[in-house]
Amino acid sequence: MDDFNHNQELISKEVNMAAFFQEQNPDKYYSLCKSHLKFIVDSGPAVTIIDELFKDIEKASKKGFYININTPYKRKGNKSGNAGSVPLDRSDQAFQLIDFISNEECLKQEGIFRKTGNLSRQRELKERITQGGTLNLDDGYSVHDVASTLKWLLGELPEPLLTDRLHKAISYIPDMVDLNLAPNEATRQILISKQITVVQLLFLLLPKTNKKLLENVLGLLHRVASIEENKMTASNLAIMFAPHLLCPRKMSANGLHEVARNIQQAVCFLIENAQGVIRVPTNFMEDMKKYRKQCKGSISEKSDLSGDELDCGKTKYKFQRNTAAMTYVDRQKTAEATAHLDTQVALAELYAQVQAMPESTKKTQALETV
User: Helix %, strand %, coil % for the chain, to 5?
Assistant: First the structure.
C-alpha cells in the first residue's frame, strides 16, 4: 500500500507540474504536445486526426482562449456559465459516489453497474445531486443505487468526460496498431506501449477537472474488472460507459451505431490500462525540464540532430529519431523567459506540493495564495 501511495503521489506531482506549465506557457505546452504526438503518429489516418485536432486548438487560440484547464462546460441556456446540466463544480459529489462504490464489499457485488437498483431511491439521490444537497450515501442506498446514479451523472454532462474535441483521436486508438500482426509478445507490448503514450499525450489536452474525475472513474472501473466475483469484465463495462465517457451528445443514433465498436474498444483499452494512461510521458517531462534549462541560455547550436523539424506556432522543435528529444531554438523568447524563470520553477514546485494536499479549507486557501 505504501508503494501504491508513493506512486500516486509521483503521478499527482507530474500532473500538477504539467498543469502549471500549461497555465504559464500555453503556446509551448501545446507545441510540445503536438511535437510528441507527431513523432509517434507519423503515418496513416491518425496523422490527419491529429492535424485536425491541433487546427481546432490553434483556431481557438486565435480567438483569445485555449482549452480551459478548469471547467470546459457551459450551463444549458446560459452562455456565460461554466457548467453543464450537472455542473463540474459538483464533481465532489461524483467523488463521493466513487468512494462509496470503492468499498471492497461493494466491488464484489455481482452485476455492479449492470443491475438497476431501486428507482425511487435513485430519483431521490439524483435530486440531491441536482440541488447540491448532502448525499448521505449510508442512508439506505445500495451499491446498485449508487452505481446507477454515477452512470447517470456522467451521462448528464453536456460533453463526455473525454470531450467532443478528443472524440476522434481517442476512438482511433484501437485501430492505431494491429496487435494481431505482432510476431511475439515483446513486440506486442511495444505496440501497446505506443498506444498508451499517445493516450497520455491526448489526456494532457483535457481540462484539469476532467482529468481528475476521469482518473478516478477509470481507476474504479479497472478495480471492478479485476474482481471475478462481480462477473463484470473490462469489455462489458466499456459497453455501458463508452456513451458517457466518449460519445458526443449530439451524435445521432445511426452515427452512434457506426462508431459503437471503436468507442467501446477504446474505452475498454482505457479501463485495462488505467494505471498507465494517467501518467505524464517521461519524454514530455524531460522536455519541459530541457525547455527551462535552455531558457537560461544553455542552447546548443552544435547539436548533431537528425530527423524532422516541426514548426508549431512561433516555436520550432527539432527532435532525434532515437530519443524524441526536442530542442527549443527561439532565441528571442529565451531571452524574455530567462529573467523570471527561477520564480516560475519555484512556483511550479510549490503549486504541485499544494495540489497534492488532501482536500480541505487549508488547501483552498493555500491555492488562492499561490
Answer: 65, 5, 35
Res 270 pLDDT > 60 = yes
pLDDT higher than threshold 60 for residue 174: yes
Strand partners, 328: 317
Enumerate helices (H) and strands (E) in the chain, giving the number of each: 17, 3
Q: 177, 139 in Cβ contact below 8 A?
A: no
Tell me the Ramachandran region of residue 136: left when phi exceeds 0, alpha when psi lies from -120 to 50, beta otherwise: left
CA–CA distance, 280 with 21 (Å, rounded to integer): 13
pLDDT tier at 258, thresholds 50, 70, 90:
confident
Q: What is the 3-state secondary structure (H, E, C) of 127-152?
A: HHHHHCCCCCCCCCCCHHHHHHHHHH
Residue 283 has which C-alpha cell? Answer: 519524454
Rounded to whole angstroms, how far apart are CA atoms 266 and 87?
26
From CA 50, how far away is CA 29, in angstroms rounded?
Answer: 16
Gap between the Cα atoms of 166 and 201, Å rounded: 11
113-163 pLDDT, tens per residue? 999 999 999 999 999 988 887 789 998 999 999 999 999 999 988 899 999
Instruction: For 133-148, give one letter per residue: b (16+ CB within 10 A) or e.
Output: eebebeeebebbbbbb
Retrieve residue 20's grid coordinates.
502549471
- Per-residue pLDDT tens for 185-242? 999 999 999 999 999 999 999 988 898 999 999 999 999 999 999 999 999 999 999 9
Strands (E), the chain: 309-312, 315-319, 326-328
- For 60, the grid coordinates are 481557438
Of 169, 234, 239, the residue nearest 199 (C-alpha): 169
Distance CA 264, CA 302 (A): 48
Cell digits for 209? 477537472
pLDDT tens digits, one per residue of 332-364: 443 344 344 445 445 555 655 665 565 666 666
